[in-house]
Amino acid sequence: MTVFSATDPVANMGRLGVTFMVVCGYVMLNVPTRVMLIQLVFKKNESVKEASYMQFVSTNIVISIFALLMGIAISDLSLVLGFCGAVATPMIAFILPALFTIFVRAKSEDPEVEAPVLSGKQMDMYIIFVIGVVCWVIFCTALFLKLGGYTITDDFHVVRSS
Fold first, then answer.
1. For the chain: N or C, fewer Cβ within 10 A?
2. How far is CA 86 from CA 5, 100, 147, in A?
3. Run of H or E including 127
4. Can you tell me whether residue 87 is helix, strand or coil?
C-alpha cells in the first residue's frame, strides 16, 4: 500500500479497507487471546468475569503493545502467511480430521461404526493422516528453505537465491 501515490483514490480506498480489516480483525482476535492469557497467567476464567479490572486492562495493554511491536518488526506479511499456510493447511485439511475420526470411531456406541484405535477399519484415516504429515513436512521444509535464502527449482533442485 505504500508504493501508491497518496492522492490516488483507488489506493486510498484500499488503505481504508485494510485499516477496516485490521481494526475488526484485531478485536476478533483480541478476545480469545485475552481470555486464554488471563486463564494462563492469573488462573482466572475471564468468560465468567473472574479476573479483576486491573488484570483485564493490563492483559489488554500487553496484547496491544505486543501487536504493535509485531506490526513494526514484521512489515512483510509473507513470513506470517507462510507459517500459517505451511502449518495450518495440512493440520486442518488432513491431520486433525483423521485423528478426530479415529477417536470418534473408537468411542462410538454404534457397532457398525465402532472400530478400535488400532484396527484395520481405521486404515483409511491412517492413510489420510500419513498424507497430512508428509504434506506438513514438505511444506515446512520449503518454508524453512525459503527463509534460509534458498529456492526450489522446477526440477526439484535446491539453489541459493541471489
1. C
2. 34, 21, 13
3. helix 123-147
4. helix
State in Å, rounded, how far the first CA of the chain is from the last one. 26
Q: Region 118-126: what's the mean pLDDT?
A: 87
Q: What is the pLDDT of residues 64-92, one digit of tens each?
A: 898 888 878 877 777 777 888 888 889 88
**Buried residues in 113-144 as b, exposed as e (16+ CB within 10 A):** eebeeeeeebeebbebbeebeebbeebeebbe
- Residues whose CB falls within 8 Å of the CB of residue 124, separated by 6 or more in sequence, listed in order: none
**Extended beta strands in the chain, E state:** 150-152, 158-160
Can you give the pLDDT at residue 112? 74
d(CA 78, CA 71): 13
Of 53, 35, 33, nearest to 44 by C-alpha is: 35
What's the pTM value of the predicted model, to 2 decimals?
0.55
Q: How far apart are CA 18 and CA 26, in angstroms?
A: 12
The residue count of the chain comes to 162
